[in-house]
Design brief:
CATH superfamily: Gcn5-related N-acetyltransferase (GNAT)
CATH architecture: 3-Layer(aba) Sandwich
CATH class: Alpha Beta
Oligomer: single chain
Distance between the termini: 27 Å
Order of helices and strands: EHHHEEE
Number of domains: 1
Number of helices: 3
Number of strands: 4
Largest sheet: 4 strands, antiparallel
């Protein structure tokens, strides 16, 4: 398993996993499915690329090259983050205050 910061190249797999996580565990996120789907792939690339900073970034967990989990970190918003983990159709979440 590899854990690393997501980049612009991960935008498609980020969007797919986040959509899946929002579908199964919407209460784990501050963003709604509608808000997520309204984001263009260019918006996501910016967020993961030049829009990322030391206090606003996304970590991803990869297994065999596939994104299977992620955690958003943002100091500027509420101190809540969610992780989505793919294992069949299951999703898990963690919250921090």
């Amino acid at each position: 398993m590899e854990i690393r910061r997501l980049t612009e190249q991960d935008a498609e797999c980020y969007r797919e996993l986040r959509s899946e996580a929002l579908e199964f565990e919407p209460q784990a996120f501050t963003e709604s499915m509608a808000q997520h789907l309204a984001m263009t792939i260019e918006n996501i690339k910016h967020r993961l690329g030049s829009g990322a900073s030391d206090d606003n970034f996304v970590l991803g967990a990869f297994d065999g090259g596939q994104l299977i989990g992620m955690a958003d970190f943002s100091a500027g918003r509420a101190r809540r983050f969610a992780t989505g983990a793919r294992s069949g159709a299951s999703m898990s979440q963690n919250g921090a205050e």
